[in-house]
């Protein structure tokens, strides 16, 4: 066994020394795929865990929480809960996302009763300065977490300006919070002061309950939930802090985003699998005679199979280990510089730190190793099954690749892909859609030998027929030799074509998907932003707003032909899902399509019923369609609305519903609005209206934006959210280009004897180089054309299956021709350049030396 082990090491290290660049590229492809996937997992796991821990820290030691289906509810329920049998202590809580005056963003402010919260949420207690203990009950003080102090640049004694309606509320920073989580941006103040300062008198967000000793929490929770549902139907939910429903709710918030990024990261791994395949296939072809000699000398077939698998596995082990290390470094850097949401905004106000997870590292290591073994499985099987007598002969390489031309496995994959494309989501994830993409790639690459043979044989016949019977138009010998080679060696051509196909088709698919989404978002904003000027009081939070007096002043401005107002607020329809967004706006029920991007058929509301329009996400998540009725918790009770249509809303992934502003005000008594849209009268410029708005008594608190500015800002946010997708797409292109270069160079160098023979029969050096350039260019053009067709099919699955099942909205198809054309041109140029460079090196040894082995 020691002799066999020594032979195995000789073969392994000898191959690496002979062709280090091919091995390095395969290792790099696997490392990049593992690194990106592992980094995305670590980033999202850290952000999600920190976000959940931050929510848990706000709950403190509460046994149960009573929350309203609306963002706030009337505090009249508090005495009943505080005196309920089995309750030891009830702590009222009001949470607001307070807008910051003069800067974007918002600060989460928690109002607590200091006398009760100390028993439930002691970590959130404010720490006043020495001799100023009364600050915990003062009406003009706020305590900030260290992260909030650093973010706002407001230490103890500084004045913090927050926004309440159109007024600025000055608050003195009285000190830090006792124990806030690292990176948690949080402010705490007396609940009565928070209610008064921010116009929320009599309102609460939740009530934390501490139960008496010996009370069965589960039984008490069920009983209290039944009691509240009986007396206050549809108004309250009762749950333990971070129970299964809340955990699922937090998880659902970003799950589709995380899964899609992880799948895109695995694209690099797929490309790595093909690079391993091409590396090992070319290596086995080059060493067929060596392996045959070893078989003749007595090496068992299983040991030869193990040797080739060992060579592929070594690439996977090295690549996976490097990927794990690089992924951890990438995650740490991304969390330090960009935060935990990768630009998507799912985890605001937390600063997570990366933690190495051995289980996840093992999974991604096995993925990298498995991809490498999968890539070298076919070459290993061919090496073991080859007949020694046939393999010892020179020039039988194409025979070894004959099995690649079998068409039925590819057709089976394509058929399965078509079936998976129409399958429903699993756990609200497009798992079958991803399977369809993978099967399309496998089936498309598997068809390449047959496609290459048919295409180049047709071109060769056409070329020869064009010159027959016309001596003056004799076919070019260079073109004839190039086409003959490609037509009669489809197996080797398919190895090179597969690299082009894999990289270009995935690039096409991702490019079309992102471009389609971006164009759809832009067109959607053009439709829903018809006004000339938009007004709001704050760029973040939920404490800014316009009262009736401010609304009247804005509508009465000279030059304003029409003013429409809008109010948004969150609602909970299902405790296991994130809140939906309720939008109350001035809308004409007879013509809702003027302001809404409606999809599907509409159903006008019957007389006497209240119309509502739900988003595609609500239609998908809650099974709601036009013509049905929906119950929305408004004004402390369930209100029934008739669904008059479904609209496209790219702003709210968890769902949204639109009701008429007049209906909303009548049902809730809430007369404030969050936004205003203004249409300029004929002959009036929006700039003059903006100047008049700034001249109002509250004009300094207004934020003005034109539709173009809103679109530009939204597209910047879109690009930031898809920054990781762009990075993964660039990596896939880079790996694909490297794979193309490695495959072409390896095949060119392996044909040194063939070129030597051509030189002996009179073909010049320049003609050989032109043959190589034609072969490389022709192969790449065919690969690009096929890759475009395959990528277009994959993009259809991404646009019409994966995206709706992941994010619950639809989009229109858009092809970015400039991007696709430029990448295709780069691929063709790279393949031609690689073929020429490799050809020069292969021809450098001279014709006699090149063919010496054949003599």
Write up what this structure looks like:
With 855 residues, the protein is α+β, with helices and mostly antiparallel strands. The chain has 4 domains: 173 residues, no CATH class; 180 residues, no CATH class; 245 residues, no CATH class; 173 residues, no CATH class. Helix content is 56%, strand content 15%. The protein contains 28 helices and 21 strands. The strands form 3 sheets. Strands 12, 13, 14, 15, 16, 17, 18, 19, 20 and 21 form a 10-stranded mixed beta sheet that branches. The protein has a 6-stranded mixed beta barrel with strand order 3-4-8-5-7-6. The longest helix has 43 residues. The radius of gyration is 34 Å and the shape is elongated. The model has no long low-confidence stretch (mean pLDDT 80).
Short summary:
The chain has 855 residues and is α+β, with helices and mostly antiparallel strands. The chain is built from 28 helices and 21 strands. Strands 12, 13, 14, 15, 16, 17, 18, 19, 20 and 21 form a ten-stranded mixed beta sheet that branches.
Features:
855 residues; alpha+beta; 4 domains; 10-stranded mixed sheet; 6-stranded mixed barrel; elongated
Separation of the first and last Cα atoms: 36 Å
Helix content: 55-70%
Task: Please report the number of helical segments.
Answer: 28
Poorly predicted sequence stretches spanning 5 or more consecutive residues: none
How many separate domains? 4
Kindly estimate the percentage of residues that lie in beta strands according to DSSP: 5-15%
Largest sheet: 10 strands, mixed
């Amino acid at each position: 066994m020691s002799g066999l082990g020594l032979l195995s090491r000789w073969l392994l290290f000898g191959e690496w020394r002979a062709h280090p660049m091919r091995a390095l590229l395969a290792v790099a492809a696997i490392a990049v795929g593992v690194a990106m996937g592992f980094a995305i997992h670590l980033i999202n796991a850290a952000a999600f865990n920190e976000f959940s821990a931050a929510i848990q820290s706000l709950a403190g030691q509460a046994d149960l929480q009573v929350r309203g289906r609306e963002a706030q509810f009337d505090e009249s329920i508090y005495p009943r809960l505080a005196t309920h049998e089995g309750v030891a202590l009830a702590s009222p809580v009001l949470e607001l996302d307070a807008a910051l005056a003069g800067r974007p963003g918002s600060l989460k402010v928690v109002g607590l009763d200091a006398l009760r919260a100390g028993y439930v949420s002691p970590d959130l207690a404010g720490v006043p300065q020495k001799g100023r203990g009364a600050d915990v009950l003062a009406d003009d003080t706020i305590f900030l977490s260290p992260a909030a102090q650093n973010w706002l640049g407001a230490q103890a004694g500084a004045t913090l300006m927050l926004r309440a309606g159109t007024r600025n509320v000055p608050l003195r920073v009285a000190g830090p919070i006792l124990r806030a989580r690292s990176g948690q941006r949080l402010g705490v103040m007396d609940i009565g002061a928070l209610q008064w300062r921010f116009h929320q008198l009599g309102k609460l967000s939740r009530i934390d309950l501490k139960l008496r000793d010996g009370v069965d929490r589960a039984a008490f929770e069920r009983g209290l939930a039944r009691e509240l549902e009986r007396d206050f139907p549809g108004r309250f939910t009762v749950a333990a802090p971070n129970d299964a429903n809340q955990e699922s709710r937090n998880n659902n918030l970003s799950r589709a985003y995380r899964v899609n990024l992880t799948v895109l990261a695995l694209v690099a791994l797929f490309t790595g699998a093909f690079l391993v395949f091409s590396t090992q296939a070319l290596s086995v072809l080059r060493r067929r005679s060596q392996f045959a000699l070893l078989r003749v000398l007595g090496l068992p077939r299983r040991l030869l199979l193990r040797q080739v698998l060992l060579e592929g596995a070594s690439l996977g082990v090295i690549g996976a280990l490097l990927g794990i290390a690089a992924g951890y470094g990438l995650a740490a850097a991304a969390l330090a510089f960009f935060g935990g949401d990768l630009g998507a905004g799912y985890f605001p106000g937390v600063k997570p730190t990366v933690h190495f997870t051995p289980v996840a590292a093992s999974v991604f290591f096995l993925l990298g190793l498995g991809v490498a073994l999968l890539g070298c499985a076919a070459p290993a099987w061919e090496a073991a099954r080859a007949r020694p007598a046939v393999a010892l002969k020179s020039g039988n390489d194409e025979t070894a690749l004959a099995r690649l031309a079998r068409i039925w496995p590819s057709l089976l994959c394509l058929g399965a892909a078509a079936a998976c494309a129409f399958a429903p989501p699993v756990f609200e994830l497009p798992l079958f859609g991803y399977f369809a993409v993978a099967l399309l790639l496998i089936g498309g690459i598997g068809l390449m030998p047959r496609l290459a043979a048919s295409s180049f044989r047709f071109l060769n016949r056409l070329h020869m027929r064009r010159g027959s019977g016309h001596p003056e138009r004799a076919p070019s010998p260079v073109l004839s030799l190039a086409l003959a080679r490609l037509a009669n060696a489809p197996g080797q051509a398919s190895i090179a074509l597969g690299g082009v196909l894999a990289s270009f088709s995935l690039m096409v698919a991702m490019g079309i998907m992102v471009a389609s989404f971006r164009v759809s978002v832009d067109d959607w904003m053009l439709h829903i932003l018809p006004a000339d000027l938009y007004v709001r009081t704050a760029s973040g939070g939920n404490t800014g707003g316009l009262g009736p007096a401010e609304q009247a002043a804005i509508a009465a401005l000279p030059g304003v032909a029409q003013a429409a107002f809008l109010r948004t607020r969150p609602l909970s329809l299902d405790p296991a899902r994130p809140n939906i967004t309720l939008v109350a706006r001035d809308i004409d029920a007879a013509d809702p399509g003027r302001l809404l991007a409606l999809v599907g058929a509409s159903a006008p509301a019957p007389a006497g019923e209240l119309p509502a329009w739900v988003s595609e996400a609500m239609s998908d998540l809650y099974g709601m369609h036009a013509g049905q009725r929906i119950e929305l918790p408004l004004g402390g009770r369930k209100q029934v609305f008739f669904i008059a249509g479904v609209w496209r809303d790219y702003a709210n992934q968890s769902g949204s519903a639109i009701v008429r502003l007049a209906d909303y005000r009548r049902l809730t008594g809430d007369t404030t609005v969050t936004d205003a849209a203004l249409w300029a009268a004929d002959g009036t410029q929006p700039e003059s209206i903006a100047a008049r708005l700034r001249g109002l008594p509250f004009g300094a608190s207004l934020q003005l934006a034109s539709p173009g500015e809103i679109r530009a800002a939204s597209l910047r946010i879109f690009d930031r959210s898809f920054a990781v997708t762009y990075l993964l797409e660039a990596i896939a292109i880079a790996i694909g280009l490297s794979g193309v270069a490695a495959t072409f160079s390896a095949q060119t160098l392996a044909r040194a004897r063939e070129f030597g023979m051509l030189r002996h029969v009179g073909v010049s050096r320049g003609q050989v180089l032109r043959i190589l350039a034609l072969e490389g260019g022709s192969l790449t053009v065919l690969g690009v054309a096929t890759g475009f067709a395959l990528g277009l099919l994959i993009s259809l699955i991404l646009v019409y299956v994966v995206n709706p099942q992941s994010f619950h909205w639809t989009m229109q198809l858009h092809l970015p021709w400039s991007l696709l054309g430029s990448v295709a041109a780069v691929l063709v140029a790279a393949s031609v350049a690689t073929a020429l460079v490799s050809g020069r090196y292969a021809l450098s040894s001279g014709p006699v030396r090149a063919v010496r082995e054949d003599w």
